[in-house]
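Researcher: Good morning. I'm working through a list of sequences from a screen, and I'd like to move beyond sequence-only analysis. For each chain I'm collecting a predicted structure so we can compare shapes side by side. This is the next one on the list. No need for commentary yet; just the structure.
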Amino acid sequence: MPEQTHYLYLSRRYFLRSLAAFTLTTSIAACAQPATSSSSPATPTPASGSQQPGKLLLTYRGHQKRPTTVAWSPDGKYIASGSLDETVQIWAASANEHFHPFIFHGHNAAINSVDWSPDSQRVVSGAVDSTLLIWDAFTGEHVIRCHGHTDAVTSVAWSPDGRYIASSSADGTVRLWDAATGAQRFVYRGHTDSVNTISWAPDSQRLVSGSSDKTVQILDAATGSHIFTYRGHSGVVSSVSWAPDGKRIASGSWDKTVQVWEAATGKVAYIYDGYNVKAAAADQTRGVLPDLIFIVAWSHNGKRIAAVTQVYCGDNCGVVVTWDADTRRNFTFYQDFPVFALAWSPDDTRFVTAIDVTNQGTEVKGQSNPEAGPYVQISQA
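Model: Good morning. Structure tokens for this chain:
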């Protein structure tokens, strides 16, 4: 098996650890290039039943390999999902919407991150091929290809004002791009290891980035200058999310904690490190984060925080947990299949999650598990 293919199928844990060692090369210039696209026969499948936390509402099985990233359009109508199959797919978030899924084929390596423009008309995608592509979400046209990173692009984020796109990479940099032209605005080199995650402040004036160097850093989005470094974590920082009011940041880490802290001072509001599944089942105030944290996401209304963690059995199972952002109370959680990405719906009533279930060990009397395989699902938050 080629080295790159082997790398892509490693576990979530090894994936982040290996980012800095997986090197690709690109040119610095940004230019517009064509990309191919097509439609998919796959359609979302609705689920029946009451809408309780964790209740499955819709399943989409358009990807051929593990989905790695999901993003909900700001208007609430569509989902963008990226995959190891090197495609980004656009599909309707409602089973009642007669929108045929659209497949974008612009990258030549696995997709790591996608995000929507604020007007829900364009998508930006970042991939292991070290490039970003900006394109029309429903035609795949008007493609802008952004070159500059020298290793896998780990995260992309469109600024709330729609003017810029930020990207992070295993090359240890954060870069800012003009969303209209693809021109590179600046390169931030404040980290000493792979940058795994980025998030915008609501006012589009600042960026926060998390790295394998165990730090979270805030930078000025206008100049690319360093503002503040948060050093509260003792492990790889895998996810960051800026509160909608701009005052706090939530960061998740391999140190098995989610830390909520003041963006202006770094003062810690609280550290959530619950770990006992049985205790959480008996008492919801205990919560559960038993292992490495992979995803942290603040709800759009600022009231709740969601996290995804890997439980003891490894990549074959996981936990999605939410709690009140201010009080750390009113936990909801449910065990799920392996979750590789999560996003809140704009109205904060639903989650979209990327799932990949292996058949290994799940067969019943020689029959394959019907829930096995790669898919994306929408569930009640």
